Amino acid sequence: MLGYPRSLASVRDLQSQNIHKIIEQAFCFKKSGFTHVREAVVLLAFFEPSTRTRTSFEMAAHRLGMKPVAFAADHSTSLKKGESLHETLANLLAMKPDLLVCRHGGDVRVAEILRTCEVAWVNAGDGQGEHPTQALLDAMTIIERLDQIEGQRIVYVGDVLHSRVARSGVLLFEMLGAEVAVAAPVEWVPKDGAWAKCKRFASLAEASEWATVCIGLRIQKERHADNKSVPVQDYRLDRRNLARLSSNALIMHPGPFVAGEDLDEEILSDPRCAIHDQVTNGVYVRAAIMAEMVGKA
Ligand code: CP
Question: Cα(218) to centroid of ligand 1, in Å?
Answer without folding.
Answer: 11
